[in-house]
Amino acid sequence: MKFTEEHEWLRVEDDVVVVGITEHASEQLGDVVFVDLPEVGTEVVKDDEAVVIESVKAASDILAPIDGEIVEVNEMLVDEPGKVNEDPQGDAWFFKIKASDPSQLDDYMDEAAYKKFIG
């Protein structure tokens, strides 16, 4: 897994990248009450807003970590946004993206570097 400074995790599965938020991000947000997912087929560029999540504390954007096409979204989160708090690094992934340039993943931290980053 790779991690971004925006507290997203990225898991490569074959030719797609699964994107979610870290446990640290989930704890900082508090109880998630709403998730707005992108449309399948949407072309995104790195750092584009891809997902909007709202918690009891704040609204946040999840950014596209790489260039590519959204190939799947986790519809379960629309009906059960609280799953983000229950299993942020497991079942509560947000979207899968087919990377246009997989080398963009090289810019992100491994788990040890991320743990150091959040200190």
Automatic annotation (TrEMBL):
Protein name: Glycine cleavage system H protein
Record-stated family: Belongs to the GcvH family.
Species annotation: Roseovarius litorisediminis
Pfam families: GCV_H
Subunit annotation: The glycine cleavage system is composed of four proteins: P, T, L and H.
Keywords noted in UniProt: Lipoyl
Gene Ontology terms: cellular component: cytosol; glycine cleavage complex
Cofactor: (R)-lipoate
Cofactor binding note: Binds 1 lipoyl cofactor covalently.
Gene Ontology biological-process annotations: glycine decarboxylation via glycine cleavage system; protein lipoylation
N6-lipoyllysine: modified positions: 57
NCBIfam families documented for this protein: gcvH (TIGR00527), PRK01202.1 (NF002270)
